[in-house]
Amino acid sequence: MATERKHLLFFLTTDPHPSPFDINMAYDAGFHAVIPYGNVTEESGALLVQDIIFSRGPKGAKFTALFIGGNDVELAERIRETAVKNMFPPFQVSMMIDPKGAYTTAVALVAKVDKALGGLKKKRVAIPGATGPVGRVGATLCVKLGSEVLIGSRQLAAAERLAHQLSERTGGVIKGAQMATDEDKISQLRDADVILTTGKAGVQMVSETVLKTLPRGKVVADVNAVPPTGIHGLSANDDLKEIAPGIKGIGALAVGVLKYDVEMEMLETIRTADTFMILDENTALEIARRRLSA
Ligand SMILES: NC(=O)c1ccc[n+]([C@@H]2O[C@H](COP(=O)([O-])OP(=O)(O)OC[C@H]3O[C@@H](n4cnc5c(N)ncnc54)[C@H](OP(=O)(O)O)[C@@H]3O)[C@@H](O)[C@H]2O)c1
To answer: Which helix (H) or strand (E) covers residue 33, if one does?
Structure first.
C-alpha cells in the first residue's frame, strides 16, 4: 500500500441531490472523503455496494462506510436491505441509515418529549403534518414507546392511508385525521397529551387561534426552525418553556442540537468501527436517551 488508508464514506441517496447537511456532517465527523450517489434504486444500490466492498479488500473494509439517505424512507430501507444482502464476511462495511435526516430528527424530537413527560406510555400523541419523513418516523417511534398516535394531514385520505400502513407495520394504535383548517385542529388536538408538529419548513401548523383553545397540561414540540416556526409563540430555542397557560413547548433548535449530536455520534461510530455494524433509528434512540440522561 503506497499511502495510508483514507476513511471513505459512500453516500447513497434516493434523491437527485445528496443532502449537503449530511455531507458537511460527515466531513466534520472525520471522513477524508464523502462520495455521493443520487437517484439510487435497489438495483443500482446493489451494484454500487459490490464495487464498494471488493475494491479495498478485507482490510480496507474498516476504512470504508456507507450512509443511506433520501426523502423516500421506504426506498431507503429497501436499499439498506439490498446492501446487507450484497455483503458477506469479510467484505462488510459499516453503515448508517438516516433518510432525509428523519431518523435522527424524529428520534431527537420524541426523546426530548419522552424525557419531559417521564415516558410516553399510554400518552395520546397528535402529529400535524405527519405525512413527511420526520412525522411518519416520529409516529412509529411514539407507538414503539407505548403511545396512541393521531396522524394529521391536510388530506384525510393521506392521513388514513399512512395510519393504516403504519399500524399494520407496528401493531400499534395509529389513526388518521384531517388537519387542514383551524377548526379541524381545534377539535383534533384538544384531547392530545402531546402535539408534535412536523410540517414543511416555514409553515405554521398550530396558529394562535388553535393554541388559545388548547386545554392546559400539554407538551408541544416542533422541528421547523424556519420562521414562522410550527407553533405560534414557540421560539426555536425554547426548551420546555410555557408558551400558553399550562402548555410547555420545545422548539426546533432545542431538538436540533440533540439531533446533531446523535447524527455526529453515529457517523463517528461507523468511521471508527472495527467490526461490521448497522446503525439505524433504534441506535439513534439509544444514543439520544443516553445523552439526555447524562
Ligand atoms: N430541527 C431539526 O433538526 C430538523 C432536521 C430535519 C428536518 N427538520 C424539519 O422537519 C420538518 C419536517 O421535515 P420533512 O422532510 O418530514 O417535511 P416535509 O416532507 O417537507 O413536510 C411535511 C408535511 O408538511 C405538510 N405541509 C406541506 N406544506 C404545507 C402547507 N402549506 N400547510 C400545511 N401543511 C403543509 C405536508 O403534509 P400534507 O401534505 O399531508 O398536509 C407534508 O407531508 C421540516 O420543517 C424540516 O425543516 C428539522
So the answer is: strand 33-37
259 lines ligand 1 (CB under 6 A): yes
CB atoms within 10 A of CB 237: 14
Residue 261 main-chain phi, psi, to 5 deg: -60, -40
Residues 219 and 125 occupy one common structural domain: yes
Q: Are residues 89 and 110 in the same domain?
A: no
pLDDT digits (tens, 9 = 90+) for 88-131: 999 999 999 999 999 999 999 999 999 999 999 999 999 999 99
Query: What range defines the domain where residue 209 resides?
Result: 102-255
pTM confidence score: 0.97
Q: Are residues 120 and 88 in the same domain?
A: no
Tell me, using a 6 A CB cutoff, whether residue 224 lines ligand 1: yes
Of 98, 104, 134, best ligand 1 pocket probe by most atoms within 8 Å of the beta carbon: 134
Q: Report cis status (omega within 30 of 0) of the bond before 228.
A: yes
